[in-house]
Structures are given as C-alpha cells and as structure tokens.
Amino acid sequence: MLRRTVLAASGLAAIGLATLPATGPAAAQEAPWPNRPITLMTGFPNGAGTDIYARRLAEPLSRALGQPIVVDHRTGAGGNIASDFVAKARPDGYLFLLGTAGTHAINPALYRSLPFDAMRDVTHIALLGDVPNVLLVNPEKHPGFTDCRAVIAAAKARPGMLTYASTGNGASTHLAAVQFSVAAGIELTHVPYRGQPGAIQALLARDVDLFFNQVGPALALIQAGTVRALGVTTPARVPAIGTVPTIAEACGLPGFVSTTWYGMFAPPGLPAAIAQRMNAEVAKVVGSPEFRQWLVESQGITPPGDLTPDGFRQVHQADLGRWAEIVRRSGAQVD
Length: 335
What we know:
Blueprint (H helix, E strand, L loop, with lengths): L1 E6 L30 E5 L6 H17 L3 E6 L5 H8 L7 E6 H10 L12 E15 L10 H10 L5 E4 L5 H13 L4 E4 L3 H9 L5 E5 H10 L3 E5 L14 H5 L7 E8 L5 H15 L2 H11 L9 H22 L5
Parallel strand pairs: 2-3, 2-4, 6-7, 6-8
Antiparallel strand pairs: 1-3, 4-10, 5-8, 5-9, 5-10
Helix pairs in contact: 1-9, 3-11
C-alpha cells in the first residue's frame, strides 16, 4: 500500500550544494542540489514509529534544504519492499530511506534470501536513535497482570496459551517477545500483524494477551490507562514513561535488553557531496535541543551519540552479527 504526506518547505528553495558534474551539454544546465522535492521513504504503515519519526524529521529538514519532503510508505515483507526499492533506485539525491535495525540488521538473518545486500546496497547517512520496546497488556482483559512476574507465572501455568502480537514476522516487536520468553523460560504463541496499527488494535480488542510495542506509538495509550505498561526493554528506565520499570528489574531477568535503531539510508553510489550535505543537515536537526527533547520525552528514543556516516556504518555492521545470533537462537525464519 502506498501513502504519501507532503511537508512543504517555507520560502524559496535555498541554494544547495551542486551535484557532481554530468557529461554533455546538459551539464551547463544542471541546477544545484536540491532543486525539487525529496522523498523520504519508510517500509511501514501510517502511524508506525518510523512514520512518526519521518514526519517530525521532514518538517525542519525541508526548511533547511529549501525543498518539500515527501514521506512515502511502501509497506510489506517486513520493510523489505521499501528497502529493495531504495537499493535499486537512482542515486540522484532525491530518494532516502528511514530504515531500521529490523530492515537492515534483522531481516538479513531472518529471511532465507533478500533481493538486496543490507550493507552493500546502501549509502549510510546518519543514525537517528536507539528505539526501545515496552511490554503492554490490556488491563480490562487481564486485570490481574499488574506486573511482569504475574505474566510469567500465568505463562508457566498454561504453556503456549498466552498470545502476543507483533508488527510482523522477525520485526523487533516479535524478537523482543522471543528473547523475553527464552529468558523467562516460558512458552508464548506468536500472532503477527502487518504493522503497528493492526497489532495495537488486536491488543485493544482483546484478541491477544501481550504486545511488545515501541514506546512512541504506545505513549498516549499508556498515559490514558487504555493499556498497561509492565516493563521497558532498555538497560535503564525510559524518561518518557519513567514510572515503568525495566524488564530486567520488573521480571527478575538480569541483563535483559532488546533495543533497535532508526537510521537514514540512500541508494548506493550517492555522490559524496550530496551525502555530506544531507548528513550535515540531518545532524543539525537531530542534534538540536528541541529535537532531542522530543525524542526523549515523547518517543522514548535515545538520541544518537555519533551522527557521522562512519559511526552509523559501524553500528550497522556490529548489529548484523548481534541480531544474526538472536535470530539463530529464536529459530525464527521467513521464506
């Protein structure tokens, strides 16, 4: 499914950094980059954490670049449709991807084959932040699930009877639950949905018992008391929901951590001048006090410590190995 949101830049287009020279007569007519709207693609639906982040990033970024940012959703296959589209796109500086650890570190281990190489078929622009999940239950369905230990006790009493939603096979919301069940020594039944909206609706409709959701999309529901948050998957508590303990402390599972990241990619072969300009503008936005406050207080996202392309590349490379081991232990596989 394809959805678009256009966030217009204010004022006239700013003079950007020129692209590398082309050959032939057209070279003299080349306008500076950017000289038309830029697309920021995501692989997940409207309302997902990636969508929330993309919209918030697009507005100040469009002002800085002097061009509208089109937020484009190409959903399906755990984000692989969008990732493959960008991997094969023309590297002209008008298409970028808000990718995740799921799309570019988990999927390579989860899927038997991918039509793109997660490391080679991208240009790394910038890491955008570490993203936690939070264990949610429906308090109306399970009034007795007032803490994490109650969930574990119920699961041990009825192996396989408790169900959990995810945003898709192999998504971080799936693997966080797998890590949790392995660490706690319990058996849970997985019910995958296509994206965050379907999974959260299943929890609200009492179709499932548990959901490890991202903090940002769940925050309003947690604050309203519609869902109950029992633990976050980070090493320390998340300021946006500071009263919610970590899984490690709430569940008696020392060392439990399950976080992912968001990052901006471009097609492989993007001219260095464009990559450097985009990185600089993204770093200014994401590194600003206002944006960092929004990340921490309303999304539960830890701002990146290193906003350089090399820093992002190193995190990505390390996570390929880390998630490959987690996927191997989980036994999860998608054809």
